[in-house]
Amino acid sequence: MPSDTPSSDQTAFQQATLTAGGSSVALPVDRGTLGNPCIDIAKLPKETGCFTYDPGFTATAACKSAITYIDGDAGVLMYRGYPIEQLAKQSSFLEVAYLLMHGELPSAAEFSNFDNEVTHHTMMHEAFRTFLFGFRHDAHPMAMLVGMLGSMASFYHNTLDLDDPEQRRLAAVRLIAKVPTIAAGCYRYSIGWPMRYPKNNLEYVDRFLHMMFEVPSEPLALKPVAARALDLLFILHADHEQNASTSTVRLVGSTGSNPYACVAAGVAALWGPAHGGANEAVLKMLGEIGKPGNVQSAIDKAKDKESGFRLMGFGHRVYKNFDPRAKIIREMTHQVLGELGVSDPMLEVALKLEEAALKDDYFIQRKLYPNVDFYSGIIYKALGIPTEMFTVMFAIARTAGWVAHWLEQQTDPDARIGRPRQIYTGYAERDYVGIDKR
Ligand code: CMC
Q: pTM here?
């Protein structure tokens, strides 16, 4: 368990006083083991008649969580207290998934059981194929993934008693196990290849690569660096505290919805270019820039607010320092491309763009650094993963985080239905006018 001993500066104040409409209210200050103190405003409406306004939740904690910690100013990311750099170097994605779900690293026996269980839940019901085949042949794989995940509740409706911890755990295992099978199925359908069943003799990431790329005509020869690189990307993307998609999972979860519906909603939120869709957008942007000589005009365009153009893969709501995940991926990119023997002109454009942006006052003043998605696309591309599957890759990894948050929420004594308020800006009351008089 995390230490609950507050550091000296944390003991500094226990409450905040807010004066509104002539009355003062003392608000308690809540603290976690790390991070900023939080003013608990729950009693504000009752005592002052006021709500608080915080579009985009830039200053609002919506829950208590023991899963992931980020210090955006220092560029720190930890899963269950373990620094991302150590997990990236020493762990595996499946072990990280266990850690996120259970709170502790597994013993050898616990890991073996978990691995065995995940492996034996990777198959999909055959009716899934019929459902998949109903999509248009050129559907975007993210559209298919949202639909397919939503459909999962229809396959497992007999084990959706959310009051039963074992049924909840099993749903989480099923999601971690089946999302790669579904993702690979979506890809193969979109290119007209026959479906591949998961192979139990392979490990999580290798199994996924086989389901993606194996063809009936010849055996698949994968370089070990491919699985290693993908495993690393999955670790780095596995969780990121209350990001937009995880908050979506929690908001849907707060209504008592089933976990498959919650995760389908998370995938929908991830799809946007401001979130997980950025990795696809980065590659498109690098392709459009085309050569290092065009980098400066891209930078100038990104600084021009009239252009509506942003540097994709730059900036982050929380990190106001280098994204620690981007640092790890940057290093890995050179190694992967080298070992795969891939020479990608986009890497040259990316390096030039990064160098130019980091020197530019506009980016320096706004603390805009490369984020996790800036380099991930270049690795995915080198692994032969098509651009429209990039966000699907992110979704496979983030499923581990989504289910961990969903499980945590189910036993949170403070959990209530998520129901934000608003500042109403419409008409005050007015009388209905008949159509003949309008
Ligand atoms: N290019 C140019 N200007 C930018 C960028 C960018 N990529 N990002 C932010 N800015 C500017 C923005 O115009 C604003 O300028 P000003 O203060 O003059 O109005 C300032 O920086 C602050 O931006 P913001 O939009 O208030 O910041 P935010 O915290 O709301 O947005 C963000 C964070 C990630 C949505 C944004 O930085 C962005 O759109 N980045 C590009 C998309 C991207 O790479 N997204 C992936 C995020 S990491 C993976 C994930 O979490 O899914």
A: 0.92
